[in-house]
Amino acid sequence: MPSMLAIRALWVLNLFISSSIAFPSLDPIVPRAAASQPYEAPGPGDARAPCPALNTLANHGCINHNGSDIARQSIIDAFQAQFGIEESAIDLALVNAFVVCEYVTGADCGTTLKNLTILAEPHAFEHDHSFSREDYMMSYLPDGAAFTDNQNFNASIFQSSLDVLGGSTHVNYKQMNQIRLQREALSLNNTVPGWFVESKPIQEFEAGFIFAVMGDFNLPKYNVTPKIRVEWWNYWFTNESFPYELGWHPPTVPRGSDFVLSASSEVLAARVKSTPAPLVSGAVGTADAPGTLNEAVATTTYQIPTFEPYAAAGVGGADKRDVSTSTEATATAVPVINPYMQTLAPSDIAAQQAYATSVMSVLSSMSA
User: Fold this and answer.
1) 163, exposed or middle or buried, with CB in 10 Å at 0-12, 13-18, 19+?
2) Is 102 known to be catalytic?
3) 206, 240, 266, 308: the active-site residue
């Protein structure tokens, strides 16, 4: 296996080449016209993120379709116009996305995100036990593979999320919490020993976002206890496109951080029917504070995947996209940063990655 320094050097070269809480009442829903820009699948040279929302905006040309050199303000404008999400819900996440950009490129990115692929840098903005992506390190990797595809949509991973619903047409808070725990258990069961870092606060913010944009406005208690319409969620994640043809449209009044965080809190507090295994300590229940990794570690940077975008893979299917290191010592207390709610620094990324590296190394030596 090539050294981490060699792997990272190859990636950098490729990068620059290819580059029940009641919610506020809403005004009466007025269906919007379909997105002004039609869907266009990403090509082999286009960059995409481990984020269905950003990829959807790029696929429709609401931000640069090639996924590169994206102005910060264009992302803010696109989220509000296309998803009905106001700046307050994504502002800190955007700040931290640019921190990841600086970490990966080694330079201040200003107000222009170099490309979407940067966000696949592991244990930074990207996180383990995603609803629809593989973790960066999985135990089932082919021999000699350095990492898996944590960047692109994975139909099997997402199906494992939907399987929890047992055919339900909608997702409530309790079911979403059950999905979260199921994904965490499956991820932990298939991880490379030592790599897994629980990212409950991050995933729950994402769950709140899904309730905000895919909540079924046809239901009578939509403004009080929203439920996600499964066919809309499935269409959105699978195609990374707006499900207008299924009757969806964004909320007439944009959702802000208050809505997203309220829904997130409700999900965490919801009692589940059963607890899957294995789970790390503290996985069940409310925990607003970030976790702490109490280990002395050394920093190692990782290459991030540059797999072709999902649509560019050339595998047949029915959906729109054609197919479903330098080292330095760190402090002993390593905080797990939630990039949606806490300020991230390059040193935080280095520390979080270093923690996983050190634990993997220890466990590997013990099993040798």
Assistant:
1) exposed
2) no
3) 206
